Description:
By secondary structure, this protein is mainly α. Among the domains are: about 15-85, no CATH class; about 175-245. The protein is built from 8 helices and 2 strands, in the order ααααββαααα. The chain has a two-stranded antiparallel ribbon. The relative contact order is 0.03.
Amino acid sequence: MHSGSVSLPNNTDQLEAEVAELRGAVKEKELRIEQLLDYIALLRKRQFGASADRPNKDQFNLFDEAELEQLLADLDIPDPKDAEATAKKKTETQRKKPVRRPLPAHFDRVEKIIDLSDEEKAEMGDDWALIGYDTSEQLAVIPQQHYVIVYKRAKYVPCNDEIAGAEQGVRIAPRPDQIIPKSIAHSSLIADVVVRKFVDGLPFYRQEAIHVREGIDLSRQTMSGWVIQLDERLSSLMAAMKRLLYEGRVIQIDETRLQVLNEPGRENTRLS
């Protein structure tokens, strides 16, 4: 034998055994691939196929549904129905879990410092130093409060009859402009009534009950009268807004039907 040569195995039986083992492994993998392809086809039929459809006679020739379930168990692949149910349950759990959102940044903040008692701080002495605060927020509200505006219009009289304009007698400052003249309601109250009625859907009789609870005698008839007077005074503004609205390409409307009184050509009992 020459120096540096490599000796080759001459055991033919050993080589043939290895080849046969490799062929067996390849055949087993090919069978598994074919099984998985059939499994995919069956899953697609379960998910998307009509329940009345019959499978092709050449399909699923390796196993029936019972064998499929066994294959799923062997491969540790979850059944699609179970997976869907689990995902649905997980989604419902996530929905039920409350999520705390930050409170609006434009609200005023009132800070309340909560500290240890004087006795506790005395026990700590100088061995403890304040490093900051653990901060949390709560949303609070100040209940709506009514108040009365008292208008005091200055009155003047001439000191003697020789002063210019003395013949007119008492001179008094003019009344401030009001949306409804001589009404007991300030514009802020009228706006609140209108918003509650037409934005929040709170009828006048409920608003009347709320005012009674606060000791205010304000009937639904009075509030209805305010709305009627507003229609007369705001008609020009409504016409301008309507012209501006018609300049848009699309108009969104609320098709809720309402009973309209004194509508031309329609009875008061009919909805418009």
